Amino acid sequence: MQEIQDEVFLHVYAPIMMEYVEWVLREARREGKQRLYFLARDGYMMYLAACRLAEDRNLDIAVRYLKISRLAVRSALSGIGAEKKDTAAKNCRDQAIAYFRQEGLLDDVPFALADSGWVGSMQYGLQQLLSYAGKKPIRLQGYYFGLYERPKGTTPKQYRHFYFGERNIRRKIRFSNCLLETVCSAGTGMTRGYRPVAGVNEVCLEAVESDGGNPNAAVMERFAKLLSLYVEAYLVEEHKAEYGRMRAHKASFCMVERLLQPMMGNPTRAEAEAFGSLLFSDRVSEECLQPVAAVWKEDVLDSQDICNRLLVKLGIRKDVLPESAWMEGSIVRLGIEVQKYLWQERWYKRLMYLRKAVCR
User: Fold this and answer.
1) 293 contacts 275 by C-beta, under 8 angstroms
2) Residue 259: how many CB atoms within 10 A of its CB?
3) How many angstroms separate the CA atoms of 354 and 132, rounded?
4) Is the peptide bond before 64 cis (omega within 30 degrees of 0)?
5) CB of 194 within 8 A of CB of 208?
6) Distance CA 121, CA 33 (A)
C-alpha cells in the first residue's frame, strides 16, 4: 500500500501542487503582493514548495504559513458583539486577533491568502475579524486551487481560482475535494484556537492544536519528504532548460486535468484501497473520522442508484443514502458493477451542479 501511495503522490499530486504553486506565485507577483499566507492545514505542502521556489528564484515575496481553521475563525467571530459577561468568547476573539496581528495580517503590506479552497468561508471570516480589529473595512484576496462557490456579496477578483470555479462543471464532476484535502494536509493537528506564551522579550501567541494530531501523520510526513525531493528535481530541470516558467496557463490546466481525472474519477482498485483508507472528517471540529472512501456493503447499491438518489434529493422519496467523502473510491472498493455506478455518479454530480447553477 505504501508503494502505491508514494508512486501516485509523485506522479499525480506533487506535479499538480507545483502547477498550483507556480500559478499562485505568478499571480501574486503580477498583482504586486509582497506576502503570501498559505493556510493550515491544506496549504502546508504547497507552502513548502512555494518557499523553495521563492528562495531559488530570489523572488521579492515573503511566503508564510498561517495556522488557522474554520473552528478557530468561527470561535473568534462569536466574540464580536458578545455581551460583557461572555468573557470566554471575548478572550477567544482577542487572542485570535493578537495572533493575526503578530503574523503581520494587520500590517500595511499587500498580501494574499492561498489555500485549497471550496467555498471561501475562511477568508470571509478572517476578513470580518481583521476589519473589526483594524476598525475599518478590509478586503482580502485569496488564490484557491478550486472554488465551488464564493460568499455572497464578494467579487471574483477577491476569490481567484486555479483549476475550477463556480461555472466549471466539467472539471468538478471528476474531482474530490475531500481526497485532495486528505492527501495535501500537514501532519499536525487542527488549530482549535490561540493562547499566549512567554517569549524571549515579550508575550507571543501560538496556535492550540487538537490532541492526537493528524491521524494520517506518518503518511503526510512521508509525502512532505517526497515533495521536497520532487521540488529539487524540478528546479534542476528548470535550470537546465533556462527558460523559467513561461508555459501558458492553459497548458497547466490541461496537465492537471489529465493527472487528476483518472485518479479521482476512475481510480484503480489499488489506488482506491491505498488512498481510500486514509482517515477524513468534514466536521468543523474534526469529529467522526472515517476512511475518505467509506467501505460499503452490497446492500447499499439500491440506495446508490441514480434514480433513487435524485428522488431523495428532490424530497419525493425518503431514504438513507450511503455516505462517503470520496464516492468514486467507495464504488471501486466495493467492486460491484463499478463502471455502471461510476457513470451514475458522474451524471448525478452533473445534474446537481446544473440544478445549483439554475437556482443561483
Assistant:
1) yes
2) 18
3) 37
4) no
5) yes
6) 22
Model pLDDT for residues 136-163, shown as the tens digit of each residue: 889 999 999 999 999 998 999 999 999 9
Residue 211 φ/ψ region, left for φ over 0, alpha for ψ in the -120 to 50 degree band, beta for the rest: beta
SS3 content of the chain, % helix, strand, coil (to 5): 50, 15, 35
Domain ranges of the chain: 2-264, 293-359
Residue 87's contacts (CB-CB under 8 Å, 6 or more residues apart) are: none
Lookup: cell for 75 = 470561535
pLDDT in tens, 276-298: 999 998 877 777 789 999 999 98
**HSE (CB half, 13 Å, CA atoms) of 57?**
24
| pLDDT surpasses 80 at 14 | yes
Question: How far is it, in rounded angstroms, from Cα 334 to Cα 304?
Answer: 12
Cα 92 to Cα 78: distance, rounded to the nearest angstrom:
8
What span, in angstroms and rounded, lies between the C-alpha atoms of 164 and 145?
A: 7
Provide the grid cell at 125.
471570516
Collapse the DSSP code of 168 into the 3-class scheme (helix H, G, I; strand E, B; otherwise coil) and give the result. Answer: coil
Distances (CA, A) of 51 to 1, 167, 191: 30, 31, 22
pTM tops 0.70: yes
Give the span between the Cα atoms of 114 and 260, in whole angstroms: 20
> Cell numbers of 155, please?
467579487
Residue 8 has pLDDT above 70, yes or no: yes
Question: Which residues are registered as beta bridge partners of 193?
Answer: 208
pLDDT reported for residue 201: 54
Q: Work out the percent of the chain whose per-residue pLDDT is above 70.
A: 94
CA distance 93 to 133: 10
> Who contacts 110 (Cβ-Cβ below 8 Å, separation ≥6)?
31, 32, 33, 34, 35
Q: In this structure, what C-alpha cell is assigned to residue 305?
A: 442508484
